[in-house]
């Protein structure tokens, strides 16, 4: 279970003496499971006492453990003595991202002479209707596979499928940047039903047919050699999805996620950094921005900003959605840039393999310039290992301007302009 004892430290400052109580749901069962990249059994609602000085730290800790803060209340001096909570709701937080929204304490509950302040800067879309968990694991939606297409061309590495499901018989709605869960059939090694795995949605909210009847995924089959036996091991859920045939049923949950949503601003600058199947949400973004049928279906959203995609892959045949991406770039050269990092074919300036972080370093000054604009959003999706190299490249260019990159990145996160979904 989550250990709340670390949240009970004290501070000597006047503000630090204030204490809050977080109501948290969905925490993973223990800290070791924090390293897992798929959902596991989660706990119920618990209450964690947090001093003012550790509020942001505990938010991040809870988010890392898959928790959701559903309510925050200030613990008054009197109430801390008798064990009851002060009747004052401070803020509601967004799901699993450790950022508070702009909910404020009720005016009648403020202490005399004390101004009410939001805990963090309000983000875009806090009032927007974002569909979440319409279908849950105990009652999933039963969809059907419509198509299952191989995307790795001849000479490429591994197998990666674009899979489309019919959802017309249910009420599954979603937005670009969200995920759905897939529950594979069968039982696990402990004799229990297989748990769901989350996959980023690769289609727009209207589906590939722009008819609101489908949802699509980009799924690479997990395969590796067992370190002891040398036998090939295949991922349970990814193999299930990649093996689906048209007409096959599939159990779907969700949608989930608010971290990777697009801003509504049609003039925004959108910087995207992807490796492998991390392209999935960015395909949804770009289709919404540039596909003719999508633009016709969204008269209130005509993208006229800049979208810049950095895409890291192993070989040219592994460039997912290559033809469609380059077709969009040809049609909108002033609005869409594509930059590939093909590790097994290209060399970086040091003579090593070209990875996505090397491309970021090459373009760091231009990226830094774009990041100075208030309507620039940066999204990272794919392998977690790329984050360190990206930070290193941007740290160097920020230092030239006398800016601490870590602090600047933290400010962008707080403003809702830095979005990360890695594994």
Describe the structure.
The protein is of the alpha+beta class. The protein has 3 domains: 101 residues, no CATH class; 116 residues, Elongation Factor Tu (Ef-tu), domain 3 (Beta Barrel), CATH 2.40.30; 154 residues, Rossmann fold. It has 10 helices and 17 strands. The strands form 4 sheets. Strands 8-7-12-5-6-9 form a 6-stranded antiparallel β-sheet, covered by helices on one side. It has a 5-stranded parallel β-sheet with strand order 15-14-13-16-17, with helices on both faces. A 4-stranded antiparallel β-sheet has the order 2-1-3-4. β14, α6 and β15 form a beta-alpha-beta unit. The longest helix is centred in the C-terminal third of the chain and has 15 residues. It is globular. The two termini are 22 Å apart.
Write down the CATH class of the largest domain: Alpha Beta
Based on helices, strands and strand pairing, what is the structural class?
A: alpha+beta
CATH superfamily of the largest domain: Nucleotide-binding domain of ferredoxin-NADP reductase (FNR) module
- Domain count, please report it: 3
| Biggest sheet, spatial arrangement of strands | 8-7-12-5-6-9
Binned, the helix content reads 10-25%
Strand content: 15-25%
Radius of gyration: 23 Å
């Amino acid at each position: 279970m989550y250990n709340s004892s670390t949240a009970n430290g004290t501070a000597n400052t006047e503000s630090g003496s204030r204490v809050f109580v977080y109501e948290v749901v969905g925490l993973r069962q223990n800290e070791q499971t924090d390293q897992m990249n798929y959902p596991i059994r989660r706990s119920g609602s618990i209450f964690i006492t947090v001093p003012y000085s550790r509020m942001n730290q505990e938010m991040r800790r809870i988010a890392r453990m898959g928790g959701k803060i559903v309510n925050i209340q200030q613990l008054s001096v009197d109430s801390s003595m008798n064990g009851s909570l002060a009747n004052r709701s401070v803020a509601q937080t967004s799901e699993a991202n450790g950022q508070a929204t702009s909910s404020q304490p009720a005016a009648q509950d403020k202490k005399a002479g004390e101004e009410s302040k939001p805990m963090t800067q309000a983000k875009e879309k806090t009032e927007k209707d974002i569909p979440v968990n319409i279908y849950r694991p105990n009652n999933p939606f039963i969809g059907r596979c419509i198509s299952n297409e191989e995307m790795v061309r001849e000479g490429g590495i591994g197998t990666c499928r674009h899979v489309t499901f019919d959802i017309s018989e249910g009420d599954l709605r979603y937005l670009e940047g969200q995920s759905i869960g897939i529950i594979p059939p069968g039982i696990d090694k402990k004799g229990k039903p297989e748990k769901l795995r989350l996959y980023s949605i690769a289609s727009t909210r209207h589906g590939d047919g722009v008819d609101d009847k489908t949802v699509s995924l980009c799924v690479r089959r997990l395969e590796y050699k067992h370190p002891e036996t040398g036998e090939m091991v295949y991922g349970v859920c990814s193999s299930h999805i990649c093996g689906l045939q048209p007409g096959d049923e599939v159990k779907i949950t969700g949608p989930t996620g608010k971290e990777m949503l697009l801003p509504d601003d049609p003039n925004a600058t959108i910087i995207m950094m992807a490796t492998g199947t991390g392209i999935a949400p960015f395909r949804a973004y770009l289709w919404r921005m540039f596909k003719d049928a999508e633009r016709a279906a969204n008269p209130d959203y005509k993208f006229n900003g800049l979208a810049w995609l950095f895409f890291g892959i192993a070989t040219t045949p592994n460039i997912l959605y290559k033809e469609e991406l380059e077709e969009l770039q040809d049609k909108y050269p002033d609005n869409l840039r594509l930059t590939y990092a093909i590790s097994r074919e290209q060399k970086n300036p040091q003579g090593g393999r070209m990875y996505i972080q090397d491309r970021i370093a090459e373009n760091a000054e231009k990226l830094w310039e774009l990041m100075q604009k208030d309507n620039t959003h940066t999204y990272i999706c794919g392998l977690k290992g790329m984050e360190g190299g990206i930070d290193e490249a941007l740290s160097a260019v920020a230092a030239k301007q006398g800016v601490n990159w870590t602090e600047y990145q933290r400010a962008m996160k707080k403003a809702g302009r830095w979005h990360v979904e890695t594994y």
